[in-house]
């Protein structure tokens, strides 16, 4: 089922607002408990959780920008704002990954174990469950909307959930396996960096004008050949995507003896076919077949 942009925007807002609220709650829990047990690391993690609100704010702002109508400076709207938000969040995710990697290596070099109170362990366990819940919700909204920024935010939530799990594991097994936290941390950081790379690469490719899927173009070609078997079909198909809106151009070769009126009617019908497939506006340029004399 096709999801309208209004529905995508609503889902993105839900994800963003829920993330902000839960992160604020977790910040207060970690900060208050960290102060109570006098844990500098826990207080620092509390501030990190508060900073996670930034990525959710970027998601909301990105979709708000994308929903703005076209204007004199942006004739095709602001649909690509969401992809810009994806790159920003992907970059922040990369920072988290490199920071996580650095801290994990330092722990191994310095043979650092973990030491937290029982209350702190409970808070981190609760944090892991809540953050993974946020990640699952964000991944679900990303699948429903196809939004890279939501997928990036989901990975950001998951990185926090995994970090909390590692802290709990480090506390529970620190006496026997002091290296566990560092080794697992390196593995997770590499996973986060890979996700960051994938998010930035796909969003950047989209912004630079990624070609449409061959499957869609083939469907258009098949429909055109079916309705107009006397023609060679269309070529030079170019698709420019702006969020949910597409601008499509194509060339149509017709016999030189065909009347302008007939060629125009065929081009108009092909534009309808293209617009139905790509959900946007299409322009078909008509050009005559070159005769043998012209080719000479």
From TrEMBL:
Main location as per UniProt: membrane
Bilayer topology annotation: Multi-pass membrane protein
Localisation per UniProt entry: Membrane
All residue ranges annotated as the Cation efflux protein cytoplasmic domain in the record: 212-289
Residue ranges occupied by any Cation efflux protein transmembrane domain in the UniProt entry: 18-208
Entry-linked InterPro entries: Cation_efflux, Cation_efflux_CTD, Cation_efflux_CTD_sf, Cation_efflux_TM, Cation_efflux_TMD_sf, CDF_Transporter
Entry-linked Pfam families: Cation_efflux (PF01545), ZT_dimer (PF16916)
Transmembrane segments: 12-34, 46-64, 84-102, 122-140, 184-200
An example Gene Ontology CC term for this record: membrane
Origin: domain of life: Bacteria
Keywords: Membrane, Transmembrane, Transmembrane helix, Transport
GO terms of molecular function: monoatomic cation transmembrane transporter activity
UniProt KW DNA-binding keyword: no
Family, as annotated: Belongs to the cation diffusion facilitator (CDF) transporter (TC 2.A.4) family.
PANTHER family registered for this protein in UniProt: MITOCHONDRIAL METAL TRANSPORTER 1-RELATED (PTHR43840)
This protein's name: Cobalt-zinc-cadmium resistance protein
Record organism: Candidatus Saccharicenans subterraneus
């Amino acid at each position: 089922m096709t999801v309208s942009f209004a529905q995508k925007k609503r889902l993105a807002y839900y994800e963003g607002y829920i993330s902000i609220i839960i992160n604020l709650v977790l910040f207060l829990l970690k900060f208050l408990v960290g102060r109570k047990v006098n844990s500098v690391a826990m207080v620092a993690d509390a501030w990190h959780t508060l900073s996670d609100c930034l990525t959710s704010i970027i998601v909301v702002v990105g979709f708000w920008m994308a929903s703005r109508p076209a204007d004199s400076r942006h004739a095709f709207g602001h649909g690509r704002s969401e992809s810009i938000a994806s790159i920003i969040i992907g970059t922040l995710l990369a920072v988290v990954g490199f920071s996580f990697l650095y801290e994990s290596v330092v722990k191994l070099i310095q043979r650092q174990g973990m030491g937290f109170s029982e209350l702190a362990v409970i808070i981190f366990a609760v944090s892991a469950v809540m953050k993974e819940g946020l990640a699952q919700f964000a991944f679900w909204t990303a699948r429903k909307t196809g939004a890279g920024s939501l997928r990036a935010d989901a990975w950001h939530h998951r990185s926090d959930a995994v970090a909390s799990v590692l802290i709990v594991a480090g506390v529970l097994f620190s006496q026997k396996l002091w290296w566990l936290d560092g080794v697992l941390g390196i593995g997770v950081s590499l996973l986060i960096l890979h996700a960051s790379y994938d998010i930035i690469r796909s969003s950047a490719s989209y912004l630079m004008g990624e070609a449409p899927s061959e499957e869609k173009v083939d469907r258009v070609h098949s429909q055109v050949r079916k309705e107009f078997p006397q023609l060679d079909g269309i070529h030079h198909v170019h698709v420019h995507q702006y969020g949910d809106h597409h601008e499509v151009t194509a060339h149509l070769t017709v016999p030189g003896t065909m009347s302008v009126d007939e060629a125009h009617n065929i081009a108009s019908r092909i534009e309808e076919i293209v617009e139905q497939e790509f959900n946007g506006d299409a322009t078909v340029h008509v050009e005559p077949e070159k005769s043998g004399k012209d080719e000479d």
